[in-house]
Design goal:
There is one protein chain. With 246 residues, this protein is of the alpha/beta class. It contains seven helices and seven strands; from the N terminus they run βαβαβαβαβαβααβ. Strands 3-2-1-4-5-6-7 form a seven-stranded parallel beta sheet, with helices on both faces. α1 runs parallel beside α2, α1 crosses α7 and α4 runs parallel beside α5. The chain is globular, with a radius of gyration of 17 Å.
Length: 246
């Protein structure tokens, strides 16, 4: 039997990149998966179609991570459609690489609203439904612990907040057997941070493996943390960064 059979997962920001890879992997491991997306309905539909073509169950829900009502509604729709909730993956996030003194207040607010406030909202809504022994998984960033790349000061601060939220929340929900962990990717090849992009050279240079990571490498760690073999891991910050923070 697949390790996530009969489990229900919600992946925020699951229409592309790391989120799409996570959704497909959790579905491949047996979970029914709901994903949220902000605007790109076509990409979200493609993820659902790929999961269903492989024999899985999936649902796409339009919900901007900064929209309180939409995120709460996405949790409720997931529960109503699949009959419960076992795994929440707070993947939705955004980065606006720019020197801090040039970053506008609107850009700061956008990163805070999605990367911190959105995580708070989704987690609080999910905790009303998530079953004992469930999983809450944050997608943070290795720069939330140590930042070597100029232009990410505000972004790294939001991911540092996610790190502390993970550690603190794990102590609040541990009595229910719910684990809370923070998966921290390093430079991963996506359309938002392509291995051929302008920001790639300094990021690649600080890895130990001298390469960008792949979305499936992040998804594999998330799948492990979502599964039964990780039941004694909680409050942990798990990097998948090619040795960036080594």
């Amino acid at each position: 039997m697949s390790k996530l059979a009969k489990k229900v997962a919600l992946v925020t920001g699951g229409s592309r990149g790391i989120g799409a890879a996570i959704a497909k992997r959790l579905a491949a491991d047996g979970a029914s998966v709901a994903i949220t997306y902000a605007k790109d309905a076509a990409s979200a539909a493609a993820v659902v179609k790929a999961i269903e073509a492989a024999g899985g169950k999936a649902l796409a829900i339009q919900a901007d991570a900064a929209d309180t009502a939409a995120i709460k509604g996405a949790v409720e729709k997931t529960v109503a459609t699949f009959g419960g909730l076992d795994v929440l993956v707070n993947n939705a996030g955004t980065a606006i690489p720019k020197r801090f003194e040039e970053t506008t207040l609107e850009e700061m607010d956008r990163m805070i609203d999605i990367n911190i406030r959105g995580v708070f909202i989704a987690t609080q809504a999910a905790l009303k439904h998530i079953k004992n022994g469930g999983r809450i998984i944050m997608i943070g960033s290795c720069v939330g612990e140590r930042n070597l790349t100029p232009g990410l000061a505000a972004y790294s601060a939001t991911k540092g907040a996610v790190k502390m939220f993970t550690q603190s929340l794990s102590r609040e929900v541990g009595s229910r057997g719910i684990t809370v962990n923070n998966v921290q990717p390093g430079p991963i090849d996506t359309d938002l941070n392509p291995a051929s992009g302008d920001w790639a050279t300094p990021q690649k240079a600080v890895t130990a493996l001298n390469r960008y990571g792949h979305v499936d490498e992040v998804a594999a760690l998330v799948s492990f943390v979502a599964g039964p073999e990780s039941s004694y891991i909680t409050g942990a910050n798990l990097t998948v960064d090619g040795g960036t923070n080594a």
